[in-house]
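Table S5 (text form). Sequence records supplied for joint modeling of the four-component complex.
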Amino acid sequence: MIRKHSKQRTLVLNYMKQITSHVSAEDVFEALNQEGKAISLATVYRNLDILSEMNEIKKIAHPVNGYVYDKTAEPHYHLHCVCCNRLFDAPNAYVKKLDTAMNEQSGWHIYSHSILFEGVCPKCSNKADANDRSERF
Amino acid sequence: MIRKHSKQRTLVLNYMKQITSHVSAEDVFEALNQEGKAISLATVYRNLDILSEMNEIKKIAHPVNGYVYDKTAEPHYHLHCVCCNRLFDAPNAYVKKLDTAMNEQSGWHIYSHSILFEGVCPKCSNKADANDRSERF
DNA sequence: GTGGCTGCAAAATGTTTGCACGGAT
DNA sequence: ATCCGTGCAAACATTTTGCAGCCAC
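The corresponding structure-token record, covering 274 residues in total, follows.
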């Protein structure tokens, strides 16, 4: 389908390229409106999906909070904090050879893979320690 | 919380232990009722969550179809067919050392990880080939 | 008898869709 | 002029919740 330029799609894309974490459609909707940029929630949903399709961003299934969008479509890995449920990018590089290996091993045509680490982020670890301490006294 | 035995939870657990793929709550609901085992959808949801909590099964975010449940809580890897959207277990073993490595690299307390391979399953590859062929003639 | 578990229906949540209008090409 | 994109509200799919009665302990 031939896509036309639209002010709203540009708003969404610019917002996505500037964020550092991972956002829901609702997040984008609220952030843009807070900035005074009027846009409807349905349009945010539509454009996030279109931008995913255009490989500008990536839609990912959050382990507990529905779908979130990633500022890039480049494959990389994630850390999920089971305590605060936030999602972070992992610091290591993408291991492309896992794809070719799985390709041969499974008989599938593999495009890419993603790794999701489950754990507790430093912030929540500290909070837990503080709680442990306070519980002891 | 103290858990009491219930006929319905046993039904759900038995069903989960016997399946080979990955199922939604709706799937479990329909399958059990088809077998003549009366159970309500809300109870299926409740028990799937309880069983996850008890580490008998695992709730996973399907990349496109909401949540599905895995017959085991043992960490392992998955293959997702972007064509038919079915989810399969990967044939390779869990690499525990990825967790310790990420632990050191990130400063997080890592529990486990999962790898999701994206690709096209053999069945869909064949279908696509057939289509290509038919389109040519 | 207490308190968890169930079915049912209602509610809540998250996302998509139909439609008439406005804007890009 | 065409037809894609928008806002709005309604529709929709999925999951959760409140409640009264039932059942396990």
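Note: Chain A is about 45% helix and 20% strand.
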